[in-house]
Design a protein that fits this description.
The chain has 280 residues and is α/β, with parallel strands linked by helices. It has helices at residues 7-42, 76-84, 101-118, 131-142, 162-167, 173-181, 214-217, 255-267, and strands spanning 49-53, 57-65, 87-93, 123-129, 148-154, 202-208, 240-244. The protein has a seven-stranded mixed sheet with strand order 1-3-2-4-5-6-7, sandwiched between helices. The chain is globular, with a radius of gyration of 21 Å. The termini are far apart.
């Protein structure tokens, strides 16, 4: 027997659909508003710009690349530590949500390179946070950087992040993460980390074990920094590895991290007294 909706049932169903659509619309609007507010608070760039400070050893320049939804201010304490150590710094402020990695990587990396080259630097080092490390790896594979020196990556998702895998279908996530952020999963055709090969430059990786987001940490293998697991920060070809107790967001502001970044850029290794052993 064929069932038919009574007029009242049809209206109720249509009303439920309308409420659902309205709720989804509000969710997207809230997510978009939160993203805008976060970027305004952090001072996210809408176009690339660079804060350059020339040091006495201008033959060596360090490009700093911040993480997703952050700005040059997140890397300012690190830049100041490098300036104190005698380096010229190019702290790049790039729009991390402006497009996919394929577009952002050359924009961010080449902007920093151009600024360093303009100072007369003969060797260019990089210090990156989070997605900044993936941008550098991607761009260096696409077009190798001739004068590339040493690199330190802070909390890089070198093997991707399970958080992206588990939240990619959540409402508003793509609005907050941007196209590039959605490419940081561990698997799948759109996973940039899974497509990159071993590094072919001197690399030191610093991973964190602190967290300020218990829910996010619950999606990750332990230990983790609230965004990336310690195991996922590692990559074939790296020269040194250090674990610290900082969270993903604040690892760039740690005095221990700053000390070890300077050590690696100058000596090719981290400070032995700061090492902690972890079974991964």
């Amino acid at each position: 027997m064929q069932m038919r909706n009574m007029p009242g049932e049809t209206c109720a169903f249509a009303d439920a659909q309308a409420k659902s659509a309205a709720m989804k619309s509000r969710t997207w609007k809230i997510a978009g508003a939160l993203t805008v507010c976060a970027c305004l608070f952090a001072g996210c760039a809408t176009a690339p710009r660079t804060h350059v400070v020339t040091g006495p050893e201008s033959r060596e320049c360090v490009v700093l690349l911040h993480g997703l939804n952050r700005s040059w201010r997140a890397m300012r304490p690190m830049a100041e530590a490098l300036q104190t150590a005698g380096y010229t710094t190019a702290n790049v402020d790039y729009p991390s949500q402006a497009g996919p990695v394929e577009e952002i990587a050359p924009l961010a990396v080449r902007t920093g390179l151009s600024e360093c080259r303009a100072t007369g630097a003969q060797q260019v080092h990089f210090v990156t946070h989070s997605i900044g490390g993936i941008l550098l790896r991607f761009e260096n594979e696409r077009e190798p950087i001739v004068e590339l020196g040493r690199v330190v990556m802070l909390g890089p998702p070198n093997q991707g992040s399970e958080i992206v895998d588990k939240t990619r279908n959540w409402p508003g996530v793509e609005t907050i993460s941007g196209a590039a952020g959605m490419q940081l999963g561990t698997t799948g055709a759109d996973s940039i980390p899974s497509r990159l090969g071993p590094v072919d430059f001197e690399l030191g990786v610093i991973a964190g074990t602190g967290t300020i987001n218990v829910l996010a940490s619950a999606m990750l293998p332990d230990p983790d920094d609230g965004k990336v697991s310690v195991a996922a920060t590692q990559v074939d070809g790296m020269d040194d590895f250090l674990v610290v107790g900082n969270s993903h967001r604040y690892i760039t502001r740690s005095a221990i991290v700053r000390r070890n970044v300077v050590s690696f850029l100058k000596n090719g290794h981290f400070v032995d007294d700061d090492r902690v052993s972890y079974d991964l």
